[in-house]
Structure formats: C-alpha cells, structure tokens
Specification:
With 693 residues, the protein is an alpha/beta fold. The protein contains 23 helices and 26 strands. Among the domains are: 6-86, mini-chromosome maintenance (MCM) complex, chain A, domain 1 (2-Layer Sandwich), CATH 3.30.1640.10; 94-247, Beta Barrel (OB fold (Dihydrolipoamide Acetyltransferase, E2P)), CATH 2.40.50; 532-622, no CATH class; 627-692, Arc Repressor Mutant, subunit A (Orthogonal Bundle), CATH 1.10.10.10. It has a five-stranded mixed β-barrel with strand order 3-7-8-10-9. Strands 14-17-20-13-21 form a five-stranded parallel β-sheet. A three-stranded antiparallel β-sheet has the order 24-26-25. Helix 1 crosses helix 5. The structure holds adenosine-5'-diphosphate (ADP) and magnesium ion. Adenosine-5'-diphosphate binds next to helix 9 and helix 14.
Length: 693
C-alpha cells in the first residue's frame, strides 16, 4: 500500500507506461497528453487508485509533476503535459450526481448536446505596474479574472494601476461542453438531464455535438447568484480530465452467449418475420404493411463507402401521412422503444436546435458562439422519430435534404464552420394541411413539405380513416380489449382484495403482448447490425432489375409519365438488405426481393398513382404535380393565349367552354386559374378576363 506522491507515480510510469512515454516524447509538443487506463493503476496499487477517485486534485497534481520531471533519454523536456485517465469502471448517471460526488473523480457517459467554439483562456497573467514598470505574475483560477493585490517590487508596492501584458501572459485553449444522458439510459419517456463540462488545451475542439463520449474529471460546484445576491444553491460543473469517444454502434447493448444462442435459433424460425411484426406496437390494430416496413427500417440496409469517396446511406426513411387519430403518433412512440438509440421529437416543439443543428451566442457560451445539436444529430447511428414533421421550422427545412441524403449537417454561421453527423434513419409523421387526406390531390399539395424533401423518403404510407364496418369493429374490439386488460391490472394494483388473479390479467393481456419482448428484439437488432452483412444473389439481382425496368417501361410509350426514378431502385436495395438481415442471412435471395417489392408497390400505389389515369407517376412526389395535371395546365395556357390573340384578353366563360371541349371540367378550370394566378403565370387584366404573362 502506498500513498500518492511524485515518486510513486514515477515508479508507476516506469513500470507500466515507459513505451507510451517514449512515444509521447517523439511527438511532443504536438501531443501533450499521456493517456492512462485506470485498471492499470488498480493493478499497480489498489490504494493509489482509490486515492485518485477520492482526492483527485492532489493525486492528479502528483501524476502531472511526475510526468514532467521524468528523465527522458531523448533531448526533450515535458512542460504543460497532462496525464489523462480513462476507463473508470464505474460510471455515474448524470441524474444521480449528488453532493457526495463533489470534488471526486467521476466518469459520465452521454451525448454532446452543445459545444462552444474553442477560445483562449488566460492561465497566468503578466501585470505591469503603471508606476514602476515591474511585472507581477498572477495565476488565474476558474471563472473570475484576478489582478495582483500589490506591485511585487518592494520599493514600489503600489496597489495599482496594472496593465495586462499579453505577450508575457500564458494562454490555453478552452471550450465548454454540455453533455446529455444517452437516450438508451432513459426508458419510458424521461427528459434527459445534462451536465456542463470545461475542457482545455488538447481536449478543446476534440468533439462535436452529437458525439457519444465517456467523460471523466473532477466534479466541481459553484455558487449560483441571483438578483438578491449569492444563493445557497450550487450548480455542478465537471472539470474535464479525459474524453473517450465511442464511435461503435450499439456498444451499450450487451449480448451474452445465451442471448446469441437464442438469437441464432430465432433467426432460423420460418415465422420470424411474423414474430417481429407481431412485436411492433401490438396494441395498435392492423397496419401490417406499415409495421413490416418499420421492422425493416429497424434492421436497416448497409452504408457503403465507394472507392471514389462517395458514401451511400444504408438507413431508410419512412413517412406516415394521414388523418388525425389513426395512431401515427403511437406507432412512432413504439418505434423509439425498440430502436437502439431512438429519439422521439416533434417537428414544432423541439428545442432551439430544432431537428438539425443551430449556432447561437448565448449565456452558456459566455459570449462565445455555441453549436447545439438537434434531434437528427443526437440520433446519430440510431432512429429519429419525428412527429408533426410538416410543422418543422424553416431553418430545418433547408438543412433536411443534406441530413437525409448525405447524413451530415453543415453549419456555416458567424465564426462557426462545422459538419455534424446525422447517420440515422428517420421515421416521420405528418398531418394533411387541410385536416383530412384527399385521395384526388397529389400528396405534396396536401402536406406542408417541399417535393424535394418528400422524394428523400424510401417509403411513404398514407393512413386514412375511412369508416368500414369490418375494420371499425375489429379496431373497436381491439382497443376495448387493450383497455380492459389495463383496467384489470389497475384495479388489482390499487385494491387489496380485488379478486383478480395474475392469471386473469395475463389472459387479458394476451392480445396486446408483443411476440418478442422489446428488450429481446433490441438485442436481436443489435446483433444483426453487428454481424450480418448480406450480399445479393444473381437471381435476386435480376428480379430487382426486371421489376425496376418493368416499371420504367411504362414511361416509354409516347406521352407517358415517368413512373419511378433511380431513387426507388436504391430504396429497393436497402430494403432487400434489411430483409435478409431479419433472418440472419448472408445472402439476399428472391424471397427477400419478392417481400420488398410487395411493400414498395403498396407504398407506390398509395402515393404515386395518378388518380385520373391510374398510372404510376414519379412526378407526383418529386415535382408535386403529376403529368396529367401538367398537361391540363399546358392546354389551359394554350387556350388563354389563343383567346388573347383573338380578343386582347381571355374572358372566363370562353376559357371554360373551350376547356370543356378538351375534356377539362369547369371546377378544375376555375381551380387551375386560381393556381396559375397565384403562381404569377397569368394576370387578371380586368374583371374575369385573363392574359398570359
Ligand atoms: P395520430 O397521431 O395519427 O393523430 P394517435 O397516435 O394520437 O393518432 O392515436 C389516437 C388514439 O387512437 C390512440 O390512443 C390510438 O391508440 C388509437 N388508435 C387509433 N387507431 C388505432 C388502431 N388501429 N388500433 C388501436 N388503437 C388505435
Ligand atoms: Mg399525432
């Protein structure tokens, strides 16, 4: 057993870290940190390790002094080097930090929510006496800037005034971070808590918002002050010692040997797709196809890096559009529960950072610019479920294209230039602008979202609420049974002699019990994402190509709309990869392609079919208007132009009668005239007389 001292640390370094120190000497002064693994200190001496956790200020000081005084064979002297300690076995949840943790060495894990720009901080001020010119040095602590009490020159000894001499003062890079609890540590919709962290020198600028890290350091407290003066309440701040970046997917989910055995058995089960669909939102009746698509989204395709530097996303994006009260929000909430790293947010109410990211100058940054991560950055390598996506802020709207396709978010504002990662799948829900969905209008007109954004979704589903006796009865029964099960269990919990047995409850719950529990499914998904990387078989490839070309062919006939674009082909590939992963298969077969063609066709039929012609038309989503409508507008414009030539301006009755001859209905003409007018393509020259601009 030893007590910490410079000598003890020197012994430790020589026995365990000599190679690392030589390496550091080679790269000094570009590199200034010696990273020490806590378990090594424990192996060296348990007591020293314990002392470090209990009295970090003194022990870390010893270690730093030992490092800088160590005799190096090379011609190097370490100055301003740091010992950074990682891999503390016990991590504390941010919400569990208490006063007993103050001034102790702790490790917390989470996501970077905010980060200020890196700016210099003064650590040793050189003050020049304005009277005698003597320089007095004042080391600067945390927070407040301090000036010398009196001039160090014995002859002078005046108490001011002093002037700070910049080029003799010492500065260090500094940055403030805010770390937020990881969503995986929060089950059941709790609000994540945060902790502010100060880092300096080579730790500054190391991480960006959205990064998952383990931070260790000494927990400090500082006094709050309010208008009445100093408060008795203290705030917490972590004085950062080390940062460990976690870039692996699902490191947080542990899979045991027994788990793997169970997963492999499940993967061979011919019913596996049914079982997984039956585990997604079992309290919601129906929507088999949507649930199947959601399942594939959870498993996801594979991101690919091509030799030319391009990256193709493997995550697929799904949009649910529909009438109010059709369980869109419920489906989203359920998906968050199943997805590793799932985040639920609403397009309109989320934080100031919105869905993407923002740069602000606020109190947190103390006048510096702060970069704050929004939902899609926080959901990096996970699933972002965004409800009311149509109500997102204008700022987000413009960065969403990049976020969805390249899966990055670039910010260039004031001094801040940054690219944040948003490698997540997006499950969005949107309500129609006019309350209910109208099958005869193109989707882009009905939800407040630009067509370019809509075309980024791999699958769009329209959930309508059309009364039908069979379906309504089934839903009603399902909902009532679910509530009945809830009633039984609530009564049993609250009343001592309720006469309700656990068996009764289990029986009633049967209908809403997921086939696989959420915990198990999450492990299953994490396992496949880590281990299964399927490759497409020749016949499956041919199947996809034939299907795609078959659809494209419909566009070859003269005057036909473009039915699908290459985007749909990419969506098919991602879905096929996910489908193979579900059954732990390393090859994509025609079973997979048949399954996903069925799902994709269901989605295409809903959103890309021209209600007038019954044909597929990609422009309905991509441009916001189908070909038949565009053709009608062309015809109408011709009519107005002709009439204009004949009589100066086109009277409305004439336009209508000629349009009717071409087979366009009166209401449609009136509607289109309004649209052309608001688009500025025609003007009303006098009452009910129009001219083409
Ligand atoms: P939306 O977000 O689409 O407006 P919600 O998710 O808020 O709708 O759903 C409204 C309520 O109706 C929820 O409590 C949901 O459980 C119930 N509900 C709607 N459709 C179904 C269904 N098919 N099966 C079970 N419950 C349903
Ligand atoms: Mg809703």
């Amino acid at each position: 057993m030893v007590q910490s001292s410079i000598q003890v640390w020197e012994d430790f370094f020589k026995r365990y870290y000599w190679e690392n120190i030589l390496e550091l000497a080679k790269n000094f002064p570009e590199k200034r940190s010696l990273v020490v693994q806590f378990p090594d200190i424990e192996r060296f001496d348990m007591e020293l390790a314990r002392e470090l956790l209990e009295h970090p200020d003194l022990v870390i000081k010893h270690s730093n002094e030992a490092l800088s005084s160590i005799d190096l064979p090379a011609d190097v002297v370490f100055t301003e080097t740091h010992v950074r300690i990682i891999k503390i076995p016990e991590r504390i949840q941010i919400r569990e930090l208490r006063s007993e943790n103050i001034n102790k060495f702790i490790a917390v894990s989470g996501l970077i929510r905010k980060a200020t720009e890196v700016r210099p901080k003064i650590i040793n001020g050189a003050f020049k006496c304005q009277k005698c010119g003597e320089i007095t040095f004042m080391p600067q602590g945390e927070g407040k800037f301090v000036e010398p009490f009196e001039c160090e020159n014995d002859v002078c000894g005046r108490k001011g005034a002093f002037k700070l001499v910049h080029d003799q003062s010492e500065f260090i890079d500094a940055q403030k971070l805010r770390i937020q609890e990881s969503p995986d540590d929060l089950r059941g919709g709790e609000q994540p808590q945060t902790l502010d962290v100060d880092v300096d020198d080579d730790l500054a600028g190391l991480v960006s918002p959205g990064d998952r890290i383990v931070l260790s350091g000494v927990l400090r407290s500082f006094q709050r002050s309010n208008r009445e003066g100093k408060s008795t309440f203290f705030d917490l701040l972590l004085d950062g010692n080390s940062i460990d970046i976690e870039d692996k997917e699902f490191e947080d989910i542990e899979i045991s040997k027994e788990d793997i055995e169970e997963i492999v058995t499940l993967g061979k089960d011919p019913e596996i797709y049914k079982k997984i669909i039956g585990s997604i939102a079992p309290s919601i009746y129906g929507y088999e196809e949507v649930k199947e698509a959601m399942a594939l989204q959870l498993f996801s395709g594979m991101a690919k890096h091509l030799p030319d530097g391009a990256r193709i996303r493997g995550d697929m994006h799904i949009l649910l559009v529909g009438d109010p009260g059709v369980a869109k929000s419920q489906l989203l909430r359920y998906a968050v529960k199943l997805a590793p790293r799932g985040i639920y947010t609403s397009g309109k109410s989320s934080t100031s950072a919105g869905l993407t990211a923002t740069a602000v100058k606020d109190e947190f940054g103390d006048g510096r610019w702060t970069l704050e991560a929004g939902a899609l950055v926080l959901a990096d390598m996970g699933l972002a479920c965004v409800d009311e996506l149509d109500k997102m802020e204008a700022d987000d709207r413009s960065s969403m294209h990049e976020a969805m396709e390249q899966q990055t978010i670039s910010i260039a504002k004031a001094g801040i230039m940054a690219t944040l990662k948003s490698r997540c799948a997006l499950l969005g829900a949107a309500n129609p602008k006019f309350g209910r969905f109208d099958r005869y209008e193109p989707i882009a007109k009905q939800i407040n979202m630009p067509p370019a954004l809509l075309s980024r979704f791999d699958l769009i589903f329209i959930l309508t609420d059309e009364p039908s006796v069979n379906r309504d009865t089934a839903i009603a029964e399902h909902i009532l049974k679910a509530h009945y099960a809830g009633e039984l269990s609530t009564r049993r919990k609250n009343i001592v002699n309720s006469g309700i047995s656990t068996d009764d409850i289990t029986k009633a719950m049967e209908i809403i019990r997921p086939v696989l529990e959420a915990e198990k499914l999450r492990k299953y998904i994490a396992y496949t994402k880590r281990n299964i990387f399927p490759i497409i078989q020749d016949d499956a490839r041919k199947h996809l190509i034939d299907f795609y070309l078959g659809l494209r062919k419909q566009g070859e006939a003269p005057d036909s709309p473009v039915p699908v674009t290459a985007r749909q082909l990419e969506a098919l590939i991602r879905l096929a990869e996910a489908s193979a992963r579900v059954r732990l298969s390393n090859v994509i077969t025609t079973d997979d392609t048949s399954r996903i063609i069925r799902i994709v066709m269901a989605s295409l039929k809903q959103v890309m079919t021209d209600p007038e012609t019954g044909r597929l038309d990609a422009d309905i989503v991509n441009v916001g208007m189908g070909k038949s409508q565009r053709d009608r507008i062309k015809v109408l414009r011709e009519i107005i132009r002709d009439l204009q030539k004949e009589m100066g301006a086109a009277p409305i009755e004439e336009i209508i009668s000629r349009a009717e001859e071409s087979g366009i209905k009166k209401e449609t003409v009136e509607d289109m005239i309004q649209k052309l007018k608001s688009a500025g393509e025609i003007i009303e020259s006098s009452n009910d007389r129009f001219r083409v601009v």
